[in-house]
Write a structure and sequence with these properties.
Layout lengths: L2 E4 L11 E4 L3 E5 L5 E8 L15 H13 L3 H11 L14 E6 L8 E8 L4 E8 L2 E10 L4 E8 L5 E8 L6 E4 L3 E7 L6 E11 L2 E5 L2 E7 L1 E10 L6 H13 L3 H16 L3 E4 L10 H7 L7 H18 L25 E2 L3 H5 L13 H22 L9 E2 L20 H16 L2 H21 L1 E2 L4 E2 L10 E2 L5 E2 L6 H20 L5 H12 L20 E2 L27 H15 L6 H13 L3 H14 L15 H14 E4 L2 E4 L10 E8 L3 E8 L2 E9 L3 E7 L2 E7 L4 E5 L2
Parallel strand pairs: 26-30
Antiparallel strand pairs: 1-6, 2-3, 3-4, 4-5, 5-10, 6-7, 7-8, 8-9, 9-16, 10-15, 11-12, 12-13, 13-16, 14-15, 17-27, 18-19, 20-21, 22-23, 22-24, 25-26, 27-28, 28-29, 29-32, 30-31
Helix pairs in contact: 1-2, 1-8, 6-16, 8-9, 8-10, 9-10, 9-11, 10-11, 11-12, 14-15, 14-16
């Protein structure tokens, strides 16, 4: 059984509470034995409706900004950008908490013993056990995606009667609260025309009585109490209150056992797609998770903790991003603030993309669909931003977006704000999704987004005889030092921007061929621009250059490793030959980052793990995984930036997967970065491009056998330890390969 468990409550520490979620609804459960608290979120509760924020002065000043940058007057260019390019107003909308469910137990007044709370990852259920006055009390809580409710079951092992008071409140920013015979409701308006939410908490009981007064449900002398909570907003429906009542009525018509059974079936349809097991000392399973994390050492004795972390991170993706929900934001779905760090938005210069790095390989393609839904909303806004800011056709987005798909620059922070590659990077996920799934209908649906992103650069790029110039450009969120000592951020042709552009153009041309696009002029222009993208350059330290000139860095241990986008998540740097000049330079770049203190944020450490996996250095991946678990992981196993950001969980998930399998075009590499500590185990259900599903069996540090199943007609060259296996399977066929 894969689980997190603890011998004490979270107290008032949100970072020790345990998360549940169904994509739309999220909850953080604190486990207080006397007064349970569940901080709840609904994924469309954002502060305010859509805004039009394009700075009308940008277009008139674009030429001057370019002139200043290209002539080396960086400070003047940045000052002009700050004034003329910053969005008006400056900020997008922010994600917000919904409120708190509190449940007090008036009869529990003495000492509580035999306390344990757990999050069962196999079944996506929170359980709590406590004993007081000779009675063993239990809680069982899950987020049901079928009915879109959080179900809270309270009972005793002995069948004893107990009392409970339940309450939902938003603390502030809600307009009315009322009740009917078994339900309390809360309604509130959020900033923006007709943008509002509704929430409801109802009770069902066995024995005793249930009364409702004000905002409280009061149960007296009950043998069992079932509380159901749901919420919605006008983002999804015209009338949230009617939706809440309908959802609760449907859930109330079911018994708890029926609700739980349908929850298990739905959740297992995601979670069971992959299984990952490593040999370890099973005695470690008896150590509470917070203690186990502190005791964890980089050896094979407690590989079970790595499995728990892996399963927990998969659980988080399934719980925060489902078809029909919003994408996982900086905190997934879990946020307890009205004004969270960075607005808990979608930061699309690394963090949002990282959230979905593991999705395809782990069979969670459908969990990525909310990201594509968001991109569709961004598409229309990006057309307006491109035209009004830059005088360009096509679509563009900067380094942040929100639930409404805002594409104007966010903040007034020169190292990040004026970066035009946000939509371009997101479009690479369209290509990846197709390569894994072969879903041509999906590709056709998303093709206009991709083509319009390319069209923006047709107009935005400056084309010369032998190169293109992308200006203004940034290397998120780093700073360079000019020869005279002046620092700068804005530039032309940053390495990452050109690398993303190469992937965008390549992916578009692949899609155009598959969809038989007859727009020959557009295709040929894209090919011409692609041929003029400057190659990756190696600098004076033997590193991949980050900017078009070999500048010194103001912060050589910076958290972003943007110039290595080409290594991962892209595959522009060859990894077959360790003697390849770019391969060597990538390693030097990574070693320099770490030497100067890189990896100090959780998500940055996760990126480092993925980069070392691409360099096929399993020991370095393992070393950085251990550093992440020890230094950048909270007691509830959330990733710590600090503060909590979920991208490190998901980036690490991708890196662990990359230790076992990596795929490029029609080539699949098995165990390309396996550390010695992972010498025995199985990894079943890993996907590769083209529809192959792999099960791997490892013993004494070597692959003993692997099985390939074909979701559709599948052909690939599979490589392990210098041996190539030719795999040709028809749809639904499965084949076992023994390693001698």
């Amino acid at each position: 059984m894969s689980r997190l468990f603890y011998r004490q409550s979270a107290g008032n520490d949100w970072n020790k509470a345990l998360p549940i979620g169904n994509g739309r609804l999220g909850g953080m459960i604190f486990g207080d034995p006397y007064c349970e608290r569940i901080q709840v979120n609904e994924d469309s509760v954002w502060y305010g409706g859509p805004l039009s924020r394009v700075n009308k002065d940008a277009k008139d000043n674009l030429g001057r900004v370019r002139e200043l940058i290209l002539s080396g007057r960086i400070h003047d260019a940045e000052e002009l950008m700050l004034h003329a390019f910053t969005g008006t107003p400056e900020s997008e909308r922010t994600y917000a908490t919904l409120g708190n469910i509190t449940i007090s137990f008036p009869g529990i007044t003495g000492e509580v013993t035999d306390y344990e709370r757990e999050l069962n990852l196999d079944d996506a259920v929170f359980r709590l056990k406590k004993k007081c006055g000779g009675i063993t009390y239990r809680e069982e809580i899950h987020a049901n995606a079928v009915e879109n409710v959080i179900a809270i079951r309270l009972f005793t092992e002995e069948g004893a009667c107990f009392d409970a008071d339940a309450h939902f409140a938003r603390m502030t920013f809600y307009d009315s609260a009322f009740h009917d015979e078994d339900t309390v409701y809360a309604l509130g308006a959020m900033v923006g025309d007709n943008y509002s939410f509704g929430a409801g908490l109802c009770g069902m009981h066995d024995g005793g009585e249930l009364t409702v007064n004000g905002e409280y449900l009061t149960a007296k002398g009950v043998k069992e109490l079932l509380l159901l909570f749901t919420a919605s907003t006008t983002f999804y429906v015209n009338d949230p209150l009617t939706e809440v009542k309908s959802r609760l009525a449907a859930a109330k018509s079911r018994s708890y056992d029926e609700l739980f059974s349908e929850h298990l079936a739905e959740y297992h349809s995601y979670f069971d797609r992959v299984s990952f097991d490593l040999a370890y000392d099973a005695d470690c399973d008896e150590i509470p998770t917070d203690e186990r994390r502190k005791l964890y050492q980089p050896d094979s004795r407690d590989n079970g903790f790595v499995k728990t972390y892996f399963d927990f991170s998969r659980y988080l993706l399934i719980s925060s991003s489902r078809p029909g929900s919003q994408p996982a934001n900086l905190q997934g779905i879990w946020n307890d603030s009205m004004n969270p760090p960075w607005g808990s938005k979608y930061t699309i210069n690394i963090n949002t993309e990282m959230n979905y790095w593991p999705a395809e390989a782990l069979g969670l393609s459908d969990c990525q669909m909310p990201l594509f839904d968001l991109m569709t909303r961004m598409h229309g806004n990006g057309l307006k931003t491109a035209a009004e800011m830059y005088g360009c056709r096509g679509t563009v987005a900067h380094h942040n977006t929100d639930i409404w798909g805002d594409t104007a620059p966010q903040d007034a922070w020169i190292p990040a704000t004026y970066w035009v590659m946000g939509m371009a990077w997101l479009c690479t996920h369209i290509t990846e999704h197709y390569r894994y799934t072969g879903d041509l209908a999906f590709l056709e649906e998303m093709y206009p987004v991709m083509k319009d992103s390319v069209l923006f650069f047709h107009d935005f790029l400056i084309e010369e005889d032998d190169r293109i110039i992308l200006c203004p450009s940034l290397s998120p969120e780093n700073v360079y030092i000019l020869p005279g000592g002046e620092s700068g951020h804005a530039c032309y042709n940053s390495s990452m921007d050109l690398q993303i552009l190469r992937d965008l153009f390549t992916g578009y041309l692949e899609a155009a061929a598959l969809l038989e696009d007859a727009d020959t002029y557009f295709i040929e222009k894209t090919k011409r621009l692609l041929s003029k993208i400057s190659p990756i350059q190696v600098g004076k330290h033997g590193q991949i250059m980050e900017w078009p000139e070999d500048y010194e860095e103001a912060e050589p241990g910076h958290r972003h490793i943007s110039q290595l986008y080409a290594l991962y998540p892209s595959s522009q740097i060859p990894t077959d030959d360790p003697e390849n000049a770019l391969f060597k330079a990538a390693r030097v770049t990574l070693e320099r980052r770490l030497h100067y203190g890189g990896g100090h944020t959780g998500w940055s450490r996760a990126w480092i793990m993925n980069l070392y996996a691409r360099l096929r250095d399993g020991e370095k991946v393992f070393e950085n995984l251990n550093a992440l678990l020890k230094r950048s992981t909270l007691d509830n196993l959330f990733d710590n930036h600090p503060p909590f950001q979920i991208d490190g969980n998901f980036g690490s998930l991708a890196a662990i997967t990359g230790m076992f399998l990596q795929c490029f075009e029609n080539r699949v590499y098995l165990l390309p970065a396996l550390p010695k500590a992972f010498s025995e185990g199985t990894f079943k259900g890993i996907r590769a491009y083209g529809g192959g599903i792999f099960d791997l069996h490892i013993k004494n540090g070597v692959l003993t056998e692997f099985t390939v199943r074909a979701e559709r007609k599948y052909e690939a060259e599979v490589l392990y330890d210098g041996v190539a296996f030719s795999v040709k399977l028809s749809e639904g066929e499965e084949k076992l390969f023994q390693i001698n």
